[in-house]
UniProtKB/TrEMBL annotation:
GO molecular function, one term: kinase activity
Lineage summary: Bacteria, Bacillati, Actinomycetota, Actinomycetes, Micrococcales
Protein name: Fructosamine-3-kinase
UniProt entry keywords in alphabetical sequence: Kinase, Transferase
Organism: Ornithinimicrobium humiphilum
Top-level taxon: Bacteria
C-alpha cells in the first residue's frame, strides 16, 4: 500500500524516486526508511535511501523491465526464505520505535514478549474495534478478534524479520530479473505474515511458494492460519477504503476465531 505523491528526481546527481505527502503523520517516511535499512542489513535487495524528512522520502532509482519467468519466481522464493532466516529477540519494531504504518493506517509495533500480544492484542483487536467504531465492521464480528488464541497463530517460531506489506506491487523486477522490495512495514513478526499477504492480493506465482517451502518448510496447518494473518491487512483496507473490505475482514475474523 503505497502512500504519497511519487515523482522522478535526482539527488546529488543520482537518479532517484521521490514520494511526498504534505501533512504526513509523525515519523511516516522515517519509519519507511528504517524498514528499508533493516531489510538491506538482512541482505534483501531494496532501493537505497538517499534522503528522508517529515514530508518526503527519496530513494535511488530502480529500473524495471524484466518479465516474470519460472527462474525469477523461484529465485525470489529462495531469497524470501533467506530473509526470513533473520531473527531477533522480541516481537515488533526492529529498533524499538512503536510507531508504524501499513499504508496510511497506523499500527502498533511496540516491542512485545509474545507473538499473540504483538499480532492480536496490539494489532488485530485495536483495528477491529476501530473498524466497528467507524461503521466499517459489524460490532458483533469485531469482538471475535478477542477470541483468537495463541494456539491459532501456529507453532512457536522465533521473531522473524518480515517485509510486513508484501503484496505484488511492492516487489519490483529490474532489467536483470532481480527482485527488489519497496514500501515495507518491516518488523520482527511471524514469517507467515508475508506469505499470507502475498496470497491475499495475488501477484506471486506458485513457483515462488514452491521454492520458498523447499528452502524453508512451513509448519503444519499453514493454510488454516491464512485468515488470522490476512485479518490485519483486510482491516486496514476496510478502514482506508471501505467497500467490500469490511465484509472480507469479517469473514477472516470468523475463520480465525473458529
Amino acid at each position: 500500500m503505497s502512500t504519497g505523491t511519487p515523482s522522478r528526481t535526482t539527488h546529488d546527481r543520482r537518479p532517484g524516486f521521490r514520494k511526498e505527502l504534505a501533512g504526513a503523520p509523525p515519523l511516516f517516511f522515517e519509519r519507511e526508511a528504517a524498514g528499508l535499512r533493516a531489510l538491506a542489513a538482512a541482505g534483501a535487495r531494496v532501493p537505497e535511501v538517499l534522503a528522508v524528512d517529515s514530508t518526503s522520502i527519496t530513494l535511488a532509482w530502480v529500473g524495471q523491465g524484466h518479465e516474470r519467468t519460472p527462474a525469477t519466481e523461484a529465485r525470489f522464493g529462495r531469497e524470501l526464505a533467506a530473509l526470513h532466516r533473520t531473527t531477533g529477540e522480541r516481537w515488533g519494531a526492529v529498533d524499538g520505535e512503536p510507531t508504524a504504518y501499513l499504508g496510511a493506517c497506523p499500527v502498533d509495533l511496540a516491542p512485545s514478549d509474545s507473538w499473540h500480544e504483538s499480532w492480536v492484542e496490539r494489532r488485530v483487536v485495536p483495528l477491529a474495534r476501530r473498524a466497528a467504531d467507524e461503521g466499517r465492521l459489524d460490532p458483533a464480528t469485531a469482538v471475535l478478534a478477542e477470541r483468537i488464541t495463541p494456539e491459532q497463530l501456529g507453532p512457536a517460531e522465533p521473531p522473524t524479520l518480515v517485509h510486513g506489506d508484501l503484496w505484488g506491487g511492492n516487489r519490483l523486477l529490474d532489467p536483470h530479473g532481480d527482485s527488489w522490495l519497496i514500501d515495507p512495514c518491516a518488523h520482527l513478526g511471524h514469517r507467515e505474515v508475508d506469505l499470507a499477504m502475498m496470497q491475499l492480493f495475488g501477484g506471486f506465482s506458485g513457483r515462488v511458494y514452491a521454492a520458498y517451502v523447499e528452502a524453508f518448510p512451513l509448519a503444519e496447518g499453514y493454510a488454516e492460519r491464512l485468515p488470522v494473518y490476512q485479518a490485519v491487512p483486510l482491516l486496514v483496507h476496510a478502514l482506508l477504503f471501505g467497500g467490500g473490505y469490511g465484509v472480507q475482514a469479517g469473514d477472516a475474523l470468523q475463520a480465525a476465531a473458529a
